[in-house]
Amino acid sequence: MQRTGNAAFGATALALAALALPQMGLAAASKLATPPPVVQQVLDCRKLTDSEQRLACYDKAVDGMAQAQAKGDLVTVDRQQRQALHHQAFGFNLPALSFFNGGDKSEEINEITAKVAAASMDPSGKWVIRLDDGATWRQIDDTVLEPDPHAGSAVTIKRGMAGGYFLKVDRAPAFRARREN
């Protein structure tokens, strides 16, 4: 989806930085709140009062943005894409991803629903559940699940207190779980 106007610039991020965020830490992620240089050049053009100079500045700066985007050095992310990223990362402790919120805490996800793709018990009797989105969750308590989870079962995962998660499969009682991948 292509966006125009100043709102698009607020949702811009470096693609490689997004992949590296878990290793970067919070301090480095906070630096991403400032626009990348190629975006800042476009924003700086607004300061020019002469119309011809401003247009020339915009043309040059937008060309720089297009080149950066073509090389993969710049990626724009809209609200729908940010929400999909947060949904995909649900269950991981990745506070550095908060820069994708654009300061909007209302986008924090506290619950997701999915379907079971596969379910099995590990040697210690704990359930390992792979969801249809590829995420794998492992039971970390001793709750007995009846009926057993199976492919196609409906799953609701809720964020609990102190960073924990509760997974509920069909009509079985909710159990504590952690995300593995």
Low-confidence stretches: 1-31
Give the overall pLDDT as a whole number.
77
Strand/helix succession:
HEHHHEHEEEEEE
Strand-residue proportion: 15-25%
Bulk shape:
rod-shaped
Please indicate the count of domains. Answer: 2
- Total number of beta strands: 8
End-to-end separation in angstroms reads: 28 Å
The helicity comes to 25-40%
**Major sheet:** 6 strands, antiparallel, barrel
What is the number of helices? 5
Rg is 22 Å
Structural class: alpha+beta
| Main β-sheet, spatial strand arrangement | 3-4-5-8-7-6
Question: How would you describe this protein?
Answer:
By secondary structure, this protein is an alpha+beta fold. It folds into 2 domains: 6-105, no CATH class; 110-179. The chain is 34% helix and 22% strand. It has 5 helices and 8 strands, in the order αβαααβαββββββ. The strands form 2 sheets. A 6-stranded antiparallel beta barrel has the order 3-4-5-8-7-6. Residues 1-31 have low confidence and may be disordered.
Descriptive labels:
alpha+beta, 2 domains, six-stranded antiparallel beta barrel, two-stranded antiparallel sheet, 8 strands, disordered N terminus
